[in-house]
């Protein structure tokens, strides 16, 4: 077995890879499940704090720059309302809808999946689908251009290749194999 | 000095106008003296902007409180360090700083290529002067930083006055990173002007071949490197200062910095298609145009206040100027493209679907989709209000839902792309390159799952990180092994030698490795924990394995603020580990408060302790503590990304044909009578 063949044997490559990355495993913390928020804060994450001074959700308001780094009075008030409505036995949807009625759709932290809000979700999806179709179209067009080289097709009785073509082929080969 | 600076700006504007108009005349007449004089006018413009910028800094350092901008953003007690940062604390200074950084790039280009690329440079000079004219218009006539402080006098006229002291710098900006984050980010934004100018110039001049790509590749990488560093420094600043426990909130201004980074990243990949195969010429030109347009859009979003942002300190009614500029730039690009599009015809075709070319296409698609998702989400509140009459908010949950799958797809392509060969990848090559990385990726996923990790995206992310890292390590290992066999050097020396022989390729791999580390850090966010509690001295709270005991709290007056500090002792398993000192700062000059978070950071997790303030009812200090896993990997990954980019910018030490002396069978002729000068390799860049 030559030295070049040796380095192509994949089995020989495993050891350094495993050594490098097995070492990283113990660094991963012993996660449990992600922290579970209480029901009030879970719903609070679905509505924005409407104080006008931050872009946080009511459940995650830290009101950066405020005198207190935590839920501001507005967020606390909204969380209190959620608490009360949970106690009244309202469903999650009903509680969120009550805030929409009070503040409009601007209170939601993400666009609704109905009405004009659906457009926000469609745009990335359409971009992905449209882009994918475009890429496939481009690939297909480029593939159609792939016709057998006359030099190859008529090999045997082909005319000699010009120096210019030879230079271009060499340059292309160099580009494909270097850098 | 304010008059001096103001005069320098006016002169700079005049010089830029001359460089623009004279440059156009020079393109038409090709008169050598005109070409030379317009280039020198461009250089003079830059020098005058340097003078104006230093003049404004001088006003800060000399506590000249007759200048309105200095009064608004500085005070005598402000540390010297932050008087540098005060330059970009407000609208007017930020715009001057933009002109300053742009001028550094323009100056460098005009000097570096003064005797080269004679056909292209007059066009480049005109385009750069055009961009400078826009910003100098703002600097001179819309948002001048040299306005004198004036109050209405008794007779109704304005009287010039000087204040004894200034209002001081926004507390959020009084943090060391704020001295380096904006310059990095702005250097990224402004740096993309150079590839834009070269791309547009090449199109207008119908400049032959791929030379403009070669000329601008390093400029693009420099801009990209600054943009990357700027984004990460901003994230670190948000993490260490804002006190909300996170580093990325999908704020419109954060998003604005991400947009040109995404398209710039796409360009850095797709540009190889043009260099290697003469393909994607139209795409590349439009990617550069789009990147520059997004840089201006980002500035528009930051400055205009059109979307609500926590970066409210920078907002004004200046947005309409940027909209106008965007429209002009877009029209110029469109007309230039329509008039010269036949020059951008692709030279080659795709030989196989499973090839490096295809992977670049998909890489670009994913990056662009992410860009569209972020841009549309950022602008959607405005669009919804305009089109439906009802404002619909788009917050972090939307961006996370849309971008996390996209990011994972991109991570997958990061592993796959570099191992595919140009033109065509054989099944044998696929097996050779992907078998072990796939096994390692899947195995790591199984192990992590067995350890109890159940967050699906994090699980996928960790597996992909191992997959990508394995592909990169194997690439280094393979190359280093060849050198080691031939030279007898150690693996490390061989890997360094390998990298230095082909800096672009292996620098790129280092960048990819940095991105892997960043993704590992991002995946940790799914497991964040936090707890908030008010404590009496001696009271304690538990978070994970850490027990926090409030020992005492005190107040200490400093030159520019009063610091309210908690002394918190941290225990692990009842053994004292360390002291942490979270702090709140009260700035006397403006009454604002700032947070200084105390962080105990390890590779495993960050213990992040915030002094939230006093409880309104009990007046006791409230501590908000977070346990954020793997955050340090993000910053470490960022350093690796920047390092890799710097490596990629280095020239190659020597030719990269590592197999040139090895025993090889005679190469087969490619076509009748033709023998290639080098052999094809699969799976290499």
Structure explained in plain terms:
The complex is a heterodimer of chains A (179) and B (685). Chain A is mostly helical and 179 residues long. Chain A is built from eight helices and no strands. With 685 residues, chain B is α+β, with helices and mostly antiparallel strands. Chain B folds into four domains: 174 residues, no CATH class; 236 residues, no CATH class; 76 residues, no CATH class; 106 residues, Tick-borne Encephalitis virus Glycoprotein, domain 1, CATH 2.60.98. In chain B, the strands form three sheets. In chain B, strands 4, 5, 6, 7, 8 and 9 form a six-stranded antiparallel β-sheet that branches. A four-stranded antiparallel β-sheet of chain B has the order 3-12-11-10, with no helix packed on it. A two-stranded antiparallel sheet of chain B has the order 1-2. Chain B is globular and about 75 Å long. In chain B, 52% of the residues are buried. At the A-B interface, α1, α2, α6 and α8 of A face α10, α13, α14, α15 and α16 of B.
Question: Short summary of the structure?
Answer:
The complex is a heterodimer of chains A (179) and B (685). Chain A has 179 residues and is mainly alpha-helical. Chain A has helices at 3-8, 11-22, 39-44, 73-87, 92-103, 117-144, 150-153, 163-177.
Amount of helix of chain B:
55-70%
Order of helices and strands of chain A: HHHHHHHH
Radius of gyration of chain B: 28 Å
Total tally of structural domains of chain B: 4
Mean pLDDT, all residues of chain A = 74
Which ranges of chain A are low-confidence, i.e. pLDDT below 50, for 5 or more consecutive residues? 1-8, 151-156
Average residue pLDDT of chain B: 87
Helicity range of chain A: 40-55%
Keywords:
heterodimer, A: 179 residues, mainly alpha, 8 helices, 55% helix, elongated, disordered N terminus, B: 685 residues, alpha+beta, 4 domains, six-stranded antiparallel beta sheet, four-stranded antiparallel beta sheet, 19 helices, globular, disordered C terminus
């Amino acid at each position: 077995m030559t030295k070049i063949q040796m380095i192509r044997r994949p089995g020989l490559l495993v050891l350094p890879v495993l050594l490098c990355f097995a070492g990283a495993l113990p660094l991963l913390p012993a996660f449990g499940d992600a922290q579970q928020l209480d029901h009030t804060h879970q719903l609070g994450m679905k509505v924005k704090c409407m104080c006008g001074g931050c872009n946080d959700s009511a459940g995650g308001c830290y009101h950066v720059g405020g005198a207190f780094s935590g839920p501001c009075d507005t967020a606390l008030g909204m969380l209190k309302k959620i608490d009360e409505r949970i106690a009244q036995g309202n469903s999650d949807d009903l509680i969120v809808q009550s805030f929409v009625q009070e503040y409009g759709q601007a209170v939601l932290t993400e666009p609704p999946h109905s009405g004009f809000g659906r457009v926000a979700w469609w745009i990335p999806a359409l971009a992905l689908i449209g882009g994918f179709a475009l890429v496939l179209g481009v690939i297909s067009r480029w593939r159609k251009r792939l016709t057998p080289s006359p030099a190859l097709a008529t090999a045997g009785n082909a005319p000699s290749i010009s120096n210019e073509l030879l230079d271009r082929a060499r340059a292309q080969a160099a580009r494909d194999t270097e850098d | 000095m304010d008059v001096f600076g103001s005069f320098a700006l006016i002169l700079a504007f005049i010089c830029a106008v001359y460089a623009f108009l004279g440059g156009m005349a020079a393109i038409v007449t090709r008169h050598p003296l005109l070409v030379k004089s317009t280039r020198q006018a461009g250089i003079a413009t830059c020098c005058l902007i340097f003078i104006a910028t230093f003049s404004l800094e001088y006003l800060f350092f000399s506590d000249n409180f007759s200048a309105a901008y200095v009064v608004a953003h500085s005070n005598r007690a402000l540390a010297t360090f932050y008087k540098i940062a005060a330059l970009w604390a407000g609208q007017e200074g930020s715009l001057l700083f933009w002109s300053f950084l742009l001028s550094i790039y323009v100056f460098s280009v005009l000097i570096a290529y003064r005797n080269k690329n004679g056909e292209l440079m007059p066009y480049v000079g005109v385009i750069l002067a055009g961009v400078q004219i826009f910003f100098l218009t703002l600097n001179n006539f819309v948002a001048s930083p040299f306005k004198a402080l004036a109050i209405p006098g008794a007779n109704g006229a304005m009287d010039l006055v000087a204040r004894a002291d200034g209002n001081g710098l926004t507390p959020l900006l009084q943090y060391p990173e704020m001295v380096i984050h904006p310059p990095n980010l702005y250097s990224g934004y402004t740096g993309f002007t150079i590839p834009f100018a070269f791309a547009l110039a090449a199109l207008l001049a119908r400049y032959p071949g791929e030379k403009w790509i070669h000329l601008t590749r390093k400029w693009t990488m420099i801009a990209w490197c600054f943009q990357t560093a700027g984004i990460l420094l901003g994230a670190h600043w948000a993490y260490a200062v804002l006190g909300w426990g996170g580093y990325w909130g999908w704020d419109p201004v954060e998003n604005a910095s991400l947009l040109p980074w995404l398209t710039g990243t796409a360009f850095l990949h797709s540009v190889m298609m043009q260099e290697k195969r003469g393909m994607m010429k139209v795409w590349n030109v439009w990617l550069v145009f789009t990147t520059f347009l997004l840089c201006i859009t980002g500035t528009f979003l930051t400055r205009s206040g059109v979307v609500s942002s926590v970066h409210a300190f920078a907002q004004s009614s200046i947005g309409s100027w940027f909209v106008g500029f965007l429209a002009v730039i877009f029209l110029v690009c469109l007309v230039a493209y329509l008039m010269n599009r036949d020059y951008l015809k692709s030279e080659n075709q795709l030989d196989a679907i499973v090839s490096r070319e295809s992977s670049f296409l998909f890489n670009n698609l994913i990056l662009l989709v992410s860009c569209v998702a972020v841009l549309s989400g950022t602008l959607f509140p405005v669009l919804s209000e305009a089109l439906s009459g009802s404002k619909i908010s788009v917050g972090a949950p939307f961006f996370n839902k849309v971008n996390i799958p996209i990011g994972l797809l991109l991570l997958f392509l990061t592993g796959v792309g570099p191992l595919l060969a140009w033109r065509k990848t054989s099944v044998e090559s696929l097996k050779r390159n992907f078998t072990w990385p796939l096994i390692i990726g899947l195995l790591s996923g199984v192990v992590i799952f067995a350890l109890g990790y159940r967050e699906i995206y994090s699980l996928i992310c960790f597996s992909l990180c191992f997959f990508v890292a394995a592909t990169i390590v194997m690439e280094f290992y393979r190359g280093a092994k060849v050198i080691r066999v031939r030279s007898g050097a150690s693996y490390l020396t061989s890997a360094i030698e390998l990298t230095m022989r082909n800096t672009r390729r292996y620098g790129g791999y280092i960048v990819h490795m940095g991105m892997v580390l960043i993704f590992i850090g991002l995946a940790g966010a799914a497991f964040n924990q936090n707890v908030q509690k008010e404590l009496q001295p001696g009271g304690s709270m538990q978070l994970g394995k850490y027990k926090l005991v409030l020992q005492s709290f005190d107040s200490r007056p400093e030159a520019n603020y009063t610091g309210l500090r908690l002394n918190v002792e941290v225990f692990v398993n009842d053994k004292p580990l360390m002291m942490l000192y979270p702090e709140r700062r009260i700035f006397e000059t403006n009454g604002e408060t700032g947070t200084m978070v105390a962080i105990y950071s390890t590779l495993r997790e960050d213990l992040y302790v915030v002094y939230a303030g006093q409880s309104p009812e009990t007046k006791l200090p409230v501590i908000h503590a977070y346990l954020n896993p793997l955050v340090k990997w993000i910053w470490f990954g960022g350093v690796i990304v920047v390092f890799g980019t710097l490596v990629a910018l280095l020239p190659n030490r020597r030719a990269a044909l590592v197999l040139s002396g090895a025993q090889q069978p005679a190469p087969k002729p490619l076509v009748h009578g033709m023998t290639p000068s080098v052999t094809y390799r699969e799976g290499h860049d």
